[in-house]
Amino acid sequence: MGLLRLLTTDPLTFVLVAIPLLFSIIIHEVAHGWVAYKMGDSTAKWLGRLTLNPLSHLDPIGTLMLFLAGFGWAKPVPVNFENLSDKRKGLIFVSSAGIMANILIAFFSLLLVRLFSISPLGVKATLIVVQINITLAALNLIPIPPLDGSKILMGIAWERTPSFFLRLEPYGFFIIIGLLYLGILDPLIGLFRWIIWALIGTLLG
């Protein structure tokens, strides 16, 4: 369901979904830039992208899709991998950073519910945050350009895959849309969601 429809039918749930979704996407992008900065690339910092201010990150089309289709994106944080102290490790760590940020948000949100007494509305909001961040992490683990999973795989299989993914990247968005249309994308996301839930469940004991 698009957020625009949710706004007209259930304004409270709209707020509980829209705000965490917006900042989860932003935190995902900032994490990429922050790790890149720590590894030697200051591009994101110079461009003022190491901030949680939504105005620095909103993409007009991505925001529109968020309201109309229920999924969207922020402007990717620019990273110059040539500036990194170790290009191969940088590709893995920088690309993993957004995914790890989303997983950590989900983990600490569930830990919060476990440790403290929270109102039913607070629990609902927290579980929405958890679901949003696990889904974002799962989506980005799919190894199709421009999703982060493809760059992680490029770093791991450094000698074999980079040229293949570079050739594939211009068509990545269309491949993702095609998988969505064919009903293949949802099972892939579901698989990675299951893996992430299992990891968080293990950490929480």
What is the count of β-strands? 0
Mean pLDDT: 87
Shape: globular
* Whole-number count of domains: 1
| Global Rg | 17 Å
Q: Tell me the fraction of residues in β-strands, as a range.
A: under 5%
In sequence order, what are the helices and strands, one letter per element? HHHHHHHHHH
The stretches of 5 or more residues where confidence is low (pLDDT under 50) are none
Give the helix/strand class: mainly alpha
* Biggest pleated-sheet summary: none
What is the share of helical residues?
A: over 70%
Quote the distance from N terminus to C terminus.
Answer: 34 Å
What is the number of helical segments per DSSP (H or I, 4+ residues)? Answer: 10
Walk me through this protein's architecture.
The chain is built from ten helices and no strands. It has 205 residues and is mostly helical. The chain has one domain. The model has no long low-confidence stretch (mean pLDDT 87).
Short description:
With 205 residues, this protein is mainly α. Helices cover 72% and strands 0% of the residues. Helix 1 packs antiparallel against helix 2, helix 2 (11-38) packs across helix 6 and helix 5 (87-115) runs antiparallel to helix 6.
Write the layout of secondary structure elements.
Elements: H1 3-9, H2 11-38, H3 43-46, H4 60-69, H5 87-115, H6 120-141, H7 148-156, H8 162-168, H9 172-182, H10 185-204
Name some characteristics of this structure:
mainly alpha, 205 residues, globular, 10 helices
